[in-house]
Amino acid sequence: MSAPPQAVRVQAGAFDPGAELSAFGCPAGAGAVASFVGHVRGDGPLEIEHFPGMAEEALGAAVRDATRRWGLLGCAVVHRHGPLAPGEPIVMVIAAAPHRRAAFEAAEWLMDCLKSRAPFWKREGGAWVEAREEDERALARWD
Amino acid sequence: MVLDVLWFAWLRERVGEGRERVETEAATVAALVEELRLRSPAHALALSDLRSVRAALDRRLVAMDAPLGQAREVAFFPPMTGG
Questions:
Q1: Measured between alpha carbons, how far is A81 from A89 in angstroms, rounded to an integer?
Q2: Which residue among B9, B56, B75 places its CB closest to the CB of A49?
Q3: How far is residue A70's CA from residue A139's CA, in Å, rounded to a whole number?
Q4: The pTM is what?
Q5: Which helix (H) or strand (E) element contains residue B12?
Q6: d(CA B83, CA B81)
Q7: A76 forms bridges with which residues in the sheet?
Q8: With the CA atoms of A113, A97, A8 and B80 taken in that order, what torsion angle do they form, in degrees rounded to the nearest 10?
Q9: Which listed site, A2, A16, B17, B27, has its alpha carbon 20 to 30 Å from B63?
Q10: C-alpha distances in angstroms, A119 versus A10, A19, A134, B83?
Q11: Contacts of A121 in chain B (CB under 8 A)
Q12: Touching B: A residues 80-139, CB under 8 Å
């Protein structure tokens, strides 16, 4: 059996969530595909710094962990860095599973995981966004 | 040994460099932090409160008491805020 399709991209350019979802499609055997898109909130521009190399590796590890834990049939993450305009997509996760619960849970866990474990830092209006304790707690609740 | 020390986000801004090469005999990340604090007042300020500093050895997140081992690169950065 071939390994489930897994894809991770970290990029400066914008992406189209609809096109990502279409390209992901529905892996063989999947009955559920869940996705989440995070957008830039508010009216000011956002800048995201990242650690090249480690960012891709951390997202890749999260995708592998989610695939193992929820038996995913496919999983993809796209995350942007650099300057972003209000309303633009920042991040997208997609998880495919035989049934919906696994797909929903995996997508939610991936978001909780990458918020606290992937090396990205947001700067809004010249000030670094502080990490929130509730993000750490959000990840811990899955233990 | 010689290590590449990488700084990100506000730690990079405080230190004034994104990367520097450091000669050290430190056994752990915490011991390296002690040495780095002595390099300049900017380093001391950046590393003044370790509760808001995370470390990665060769791109893997580690605790401050982790041994440096054969690591070639140590990165310091604030808690992550992606997503």
A1: 11
A2: B9
A3: 16
A4: 0.94
A5: helix B9-15
A6: 7
A7: A7, A94
A8: -10
A9: B17
A10: 11, 26, 18, 10
A11: 8-9, 77-78, 80-82
A12: 90-91, 111, 114-123, 128-131, 136
The per-residue pLDDT for A1 is: 47
Check residue B34 and give its pLDDT.
97
**Chain pair A-B, CB pairs under 8 angstroms:** 69
What ipTM score was computed for the predicted complex, to two decimals? 0.95
pLDDT class of A44 with cuts at 50, 70, 90: confident
- Contacts of B60 by beta carbon, 8 Å cutoff, 6+ apart: none
Whole-angstrom distance, CA of residue A8 vs CA of residue A53: 12
Rounded distance between C-alpha atoms, residue A36 and residue A75, angstroms: 12
Strands A6-11 and A74-80: parallel
A42: its two tokens: 């508010």
Sequence length of chain A is: 143
Q: Which of A57, A115, A121 minimises the CB distance to B78?
A: A121
Q: How many C-beta neighbours within 10 Å does residue A111 have?
A: 21
Q: What is the pLDDT of residues B22-32, one digit of tens each?
A: 999 999 999 99
Place of tokens 């007042």: B41
The DSSP symbol for B78 reads P
